[in-house]
Amino acid sequence: MSLPHGQRATQIGAAAANAVREHSKFFLAEGIILVLLGALAIFLPLFATITITIILGWIFLASGIIGMIATFGARLAPGFWWSLVSALIAIAVGFVLLVEPIAGALSLTLVLIIFFVFEGIASAMYALEHRRELSGRWEWMFVSGIIDFVLAGK
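The structure corresponding to this sequence follows.
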């Protein structure tokens, strides 16, 4: 038997409060670590910038490699080449940010603009190639490409 909405909300709230109480030491430790990292970022901005650039490099590299694996796994699907281009762009951006983190930090805005422009083109073209197979769902891929263009323009 299902509980009324109000009782479910009360149970969820009580369970969340109980979880916070049980793990309060972990939340306190996390808070202290985040405050220390925030202070480190304020007092050592170059260190924080290079660290973020390296983290973004790894994220781009990993997403590109995973995208390439997924692309080759579906190599007979429409939009293969656009998906491959997207994965290669992510790998290239990740590689640039990892090999030259200082230059990458200085040019990160430009690198991200270029990435989002090419990613927007690849996503939009991929969506258009899937128009016949994904009737009613390809629009979301196309919107993703448009959002990439909007991000590039910001």
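Residues 24 and 30 are 10 Å apart (CA to CA).
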